[in-house]
Write a structure and sequence with these properties.
This protein is an alpha/beta fold. 35% of the residues lie in helices and 24% in strands. It has one domain: HybD-like (Rossmann fold). The termini are far apart. The mean pLDDT is 87.
Amino acid sequence: MIYSDLAMETRAGCGKIPGICVEQEKAEGRTVTRVTVENKDAATFIGKPVGTYVTIEEKGLTNLESCEREAFSKALSAEMRALFENKSFSSVLIAGIGNRNLTPDALGPRCVEGILVTGHLRDADGCKTFVLNPGVTGQTGIETKGLLASVIGTVRPDLVILVDALCARATDRILSTVQLTNAGVVPGSGLGNRRCALNKETLGIPVLAVGVPTVVHASTIIEDALESRSIENIELTDLLEEEKLVVTPADIDESLQICAEVIAHAINLWLHPDFSEAQA
């Protein structure tokens, strides 16, 4: 069982699959992987919806100097723009998916705090931006899809950007990889708590989902450790899978904040080309 929200991980080790195109490039120390799921058969095979998935890996992302973070945000912004073929949008809703009170799940709520909001300004030039922190169903009793649909019906944006924490298969991708996709997101899917899908079909407008892995299943860590020593302990890994235990770094609070700021700045650079960090 592969527990991962990253398309590049679910694709890895599967060989050549009809309907799935993979491209990879390296630039300025970063690895960019583009996985395109072209049809429903391919989507069923790897368990990811049809769409394009772009992952940018930057080892030591949370330890970069300010100038290096700026460069990463610019690269991330360029990938966002390219994913929508350089199309411009007159209004965009940015929603932070997740539970702010649970640090590994707080990426979205923290990210939207750094977004330049212009939707309330009557004389604002360029793209009008709105933000929303919908919380999670356990807090509100309302499906995130319902809240988003209601707000979308009110402000009528051209695009919705969803920022959410993800689950990875490999520990070295935690807080060092950003995934972008136009296929939307299924909140909680990586942790076995799937909610209503948030995508173009359910929300009625294009969706950009942005995520960073913040956790990994304990069972995958134990499995990797046993495999490295050629040891089999099915009972142990099965127990951990059943308990759904997950692991997150000890410095998650500070590192998550850095990731949230980097993503927020990338979004600002894309939607507001004249934006500068001094305006934040």
